[in-house]
Here is the input.
Amino acid sequence: MSKKGIFIPIEVSARHLHLSAAHYNKLFGEKAKMHLLRPVSQPGQFVTRETVAISTKKGSFSQVRIVGPCRPQTQFELTKTDARSLGIDPPLKRSGLVPQQGETLILKGPQGLVRLRGGAIIAQRHIHASTQDARKYGLKKNKIVRIEVSGERGGVFENVIVRVHPKFKWAFHLDTDEANAFGISGNTKGRLL
Amino acid sequence: MSKKGIFIPIEVSARHLHLSAAHYNKLFGEKAKMHLLRPVSQPGQFVTRETVAISTKKGSFSQVRIVGPCRPQTQFELTKTDARSLGIDPPLKRSGLVPQQGETLILKGPQGLVRLRGGAIIAQRHIHASTQDARKYGLKKNKIVRIEVSGERGGVFENVIVRVHPKFKWAFHLDTDEANAFGISGNTKGRLL
Here is the structure.
């Protein structure tokens, strides 16, 4: 099948935090639950009403969104622009790969503090594909592809990694730096090259 | 000549302000001069020791760099990320093309205020080429080219405009959003496609 016509809806991630259950309870209280603010596009995931303040010696963000449910490890996904304002230099990684080394972040919730060492990443550009869509478009898990975005600030994103899961929704994920650099907003689609 | 081997040093512009002489004097005083902090790469241009606070109803930057010397018209060049934090939506334009419409910015200096309407732009990606380099590489003024940047966040920038002037220094100019989105720092070069 020609890839000429394969367009993928673009979704833009702003900085957000995934929390372990232990850290969630430390920040929000022993028996605290997460409260849904709105679902995000990947099934079962949601933004919580709760937010966390994250700070370093150099800077801070007062209301960082949490994406639930809880995960095995706490991870802060941020942009390079965010990282500069915090004075940190996190690695580029796939969401879910949590570096154990790195600068210390202070997470502050209404009930407590967490000192997190090395949990920050800049997320690698990626495609979410369901097992079915991956088969349909000839994409394999962890394959690296290129995506073109048109427009007055258009171009090509290289090194886009394919992630496959039965429940994933077809989407091309960028962070706000990447979206801003390419003038992406609203219902933009990327073309698989 | 093959373009395979044409590499252009990348230079990254953070938000900055060009001021008319009238506005400079209003902000810094009737007889105030500009004081050099450091030269920038394009000959005759420099960052001043003086800075300006710029604000909108929604946000502000306390110490915006001025790039001198004075120009016929005041212009604020910022990133899309900056624009979002100020709550404004400036057009993408070539530096020097000043929109007369747009949201109002308040510029504040030690001696006065300027209310600026419509002077903000997001700068279009561009190449600076001397007349000699333009001839050498077969580039014409206002031609649109594509530039590839390699690396783990690499890709291709399209819609790059060529600017030619006898005094220009060979450089590919991006803003901080574009540089952050592509993981560009230090001595990176782009390849003309």
Summary: Chain A has two domains: 7-11+125-192, 14-123. The interface with chain B takes residues 79-81, 84, 92, 124-125, 146, 152-159, 175-178, 180-183 of chain A (CB under 8 Å). Chain A is about 15% helix and 40% strand. The longest helix of chain A spans residues 21-28.
